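Following up on my earlier thread - several people asked me to post the actual chain instead of describing it. Fair enough. Here it is, all 231 residues.
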Amino acid sequence: MEFPVAYDALTVVIHPKNNWAKSMTVAELKAIWEPAAQGKITTWKQVNPAWPDRPIKLYGPGADSGTFEYFTEAINGKSKATRGDFTASEDDNVLVQGVSRDVGGLGYFGFAYFIENKDKLAAVSIVAVPGQAAVAPSLESVINGSYQPLARPIFIYVNVKSADKPEVKEFVEYYMKNGEKLTKEVKYVSLPAKAYAYNMEHFNKRAKGTKFGGENKVGITIEELMKLEAK
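Reply from S.P.:
Thanks for posting it. Predicted structure:
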């Protein structure tokens, strides 16, 4: 049985004095981060002629990070495919300090960590498809599905045969009753309260299968997704 329990919203961050890249397209991000950019794309102007001829300093999670895997897949089209000449760290604070000290800095990490450091950084609005409006990361845009492609649901999975065990049932109930509080503690975005209630209905019915295919879908709310037929 599949249960979405939180959102992981990756946020692209820049220095507050960066007034040229307040919004970026997926193509521009790919031009910066793809493997072929290593040693070649070194200034902002090379990415967009309207941007200044200022060095880009890149900061991102290390290769063992799930954030790194998802970002590279969403932006570059393949998990872990990226340029290697950037400052990598599993400590988000190192990334915050790097970008906040360099007007040409660019990095990415979870939305909740950006919120904790929004006095030092600015979030980039993302243009998912050319011609569409740029969308800023926020609780609302993550939940309603408009913040793409850097938002996705996080799941837990329960073996249906194990669901009758008292300890498994209690664990799932605890997860759903405390989901909103617990997801914030680990720096994810919580789902609406209705979603956790719907998960318990799903659990009690022992409904098997996936409704998501492991992905969010653009423009559909989490409640709408959860009501789709399981595959």
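DSSP finds ten helices and eight strands in the chain. That should answer part of your original question.
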